[in-house]
Specification:
This protein has nine helices and 14 strands. By secondary structure, the chain is an alpha/beta fold. α5 links the parallel β7 and β8.
Length: 299
């Protein structure tokens, strides 16, 4: 069972929002979707959900087209939150779950479980407008997962949450993945994608510029990061052969280098200059790769 997007194109007049996008998202996995604002992520999500019709191409889940008849299989957390402020949490979420074919009893059981999981059981009879933004977001998340979807789409699920609630929500997302849900999520936070996803796609102007497993993407990038902290000046390394980027810090220097051979040469050159407190070769971060491929930092 997998989600397949084949040659999907969506345009508005002359503007092409998504340009011949082909993706295969494996079952029971977490797939990261990255891109600056306007890259085509939300448009892609809306086409997967059947809210927008692609101009060309096909989207299938387990070989069948996604439409209203499959809506009970899909959960969606939109970036723009969309709960009714005047309604009570229980009324609203049970209603939404019943629209997706759940019985009232099952919906209440799941709702109770999730409210306790998020440490907010007392909010069951509160109106949405009485809750803080962070708690409204938790309720919106519960609305997306209450009917136990097989495919869950999360558009910026952690935006606006404090660190404690980010960890709480992350734990819930990973729990769903472990129980067999296929999850596609977009995030502005590279470290979340790096930590949680095995496969990802970086979109730029409607096209995928990087797509594949996180391990392979890092390996194929070629460059490494080298962090050196020492009790002597390291500024001269900025112009060293094989160094592609450098940043002097209070403790030493951070270098982006072309490969391990460059680190070896640098170490030989500086080893007799004084005390070296740290000399660490690191894999490139997703942020490094994003900046290189898209040409801008993603903050």
């Amino acid at each position: 069972m997998s989600l397949k997007l084949e040659q999907i194109t969506k345009s508005y007049g002359k503007f092409i929002a998504v340009d011949e996008l082909t993706l295969n998202i494996p079952e029971k996995e977490m797939f990261g979707f990255l891109g600056a604002n306007g890259a085509g992520k939300t448009t892609t999500f809306r086409m997967i959900l059947g809210l927008l019709e692609p101009n060309s191409g096909t989207i299938t889940w387990n070989g069948t087209n996604l439409n209203y008849s499959t809506s009970h299989l899909v959960g969606y957390l939109p970036e723009e939150r969309g709960l009714y402020p005047k309604l009570k949490v229980k009324e609203q979420l049970v209603y939404l779950a019943r629209l997706r074919g759940m019985s009232k009893q099952d919906a209440l059981k799941q709702l109770t479980y999730w409210l306790e999981r998020f440490k907010i059981p007392e909010y069951i009879d509160k109106k949405v407008e009485e809750l803080s933004k962070g708690n409204q977001q938790k309720i919106q998340f519960i609305a997306a997962v209450l009917h136990q979807p097989k495919l869950l789409i999360l558009d910026e699920p952690f935006s606006g949450l404090d660190p404690v609630n980010v960890e709480l929500l992350k734990g819930a997302v990973l729990e769903l993945k472990e129980s067999g849900t296929t999850i596609v999520f977009s995030s502005h936070r590279m470290e979340h994608v790096e930590e949680m996803c095995e496969h990802l796609c970086i979109m730029h102007k409607g096209k995928p510029v990087v797509h594949g497993s996180l391990k392979d993407i890092k390996r194929n990038f070629g460059k490494k990061n080298l962090v050196i902290h020492a009790d002597f000046p390291l500024d001269e390394l900025k112009d060293y052969s094989g160094v592609t980027k450098s940043k002097v810090t209070t403790e030493g220097i951070h270098l982006q280098i072309e490969g391990e051979h460059v680190a070896e040469k640098i170490l030989k050159q500086i080893v007799n200059n004084g005390f070296i407190r740290k000399f660490v070769l690191e894999e490139p971060s997703l942020n490094d790769i994003f900046i290189e491929k898209v040409g801008a930092s993603y903050e």
